[in-house]
Amino acid sequence: MDIQKLQRMQNASRAGGKNAPRRKQVRKPRSEADDQKVQAALKKINVQHIPGIDEVNMFKEDGNVIHFSKPIVHSAANANTTAVYGRAQNKELTELVPGILPQLGADSLANLKRLAEQYQQLTQSQQQQALNKAKEEDNGDDDVPDLVENFDNADENKNVD
């Protein structure tokens, strides 16, 4: 090979320099930095770790629940602040009802009754829609032919032969 050709190939493959394309840097999410900022802000208001909490449930207006199992909870009563750390799961209220009844207060029980009524109305409307849909499907079923012959007469004709 020619030396000049090798030099041209080497210059063309060089990363960086004049007329070289810029490469984008891959940036990692800054979750650790954000967590550290949150921790620093919480330390400023003197939060204390609360041991012995097995689960945390946060009720939404739409009837769903944000459920934390075995969370880490920090609280500062004077700043009216509570921080909950852990893996959160969105669950429906009906999934958690037997276990959370002792946790509910008077206000929550009223909300639970209201949600139960809404859920019942919703399920009734869904059942009604399913029945209407089934009726529509049954009305359109023309695959079964109508009876033309009288089978009783056909049976008598066989006995005669």
UniProtKB/TrEMBL annotation:
Stretches assigned to the NAC-A/B domain: 32-97
Any one GO BP annotation for this protein: protein transport
GO cellular component, one term: nucleus
PROSITE patterns (alphabetical): NAC_AB
InterPro entries in the record: BTF3, NAC_A/B_dom_sf, Nas_poly-pep-assoc_cplx_dom
Region Disordered, residue ranges: 1-37, 123-161
SMART domains in UniProt: NAC
Keyword 4Fe-4S included in the entry's annotation: no
Major localization class: cytoplasm
Matching Pfam families: NAC (PF01849)
Presence of keyword Protease: no
Location of the protein in the cell: Cytoplasm; Nucleus
Keywords recorded for this protein, A-Z: Cytoplasm, Nucleus, Protein transport, Repressor, Transcription, Transcription regulation, Transport
Oligomer status and interactors: Part of the nascent polypeptide-associated complex (NAC).
Family that this chain belongs to: Belongs to the NAC-beta family.
Protein name: Nascent polypeptide-associated complex subunit beta
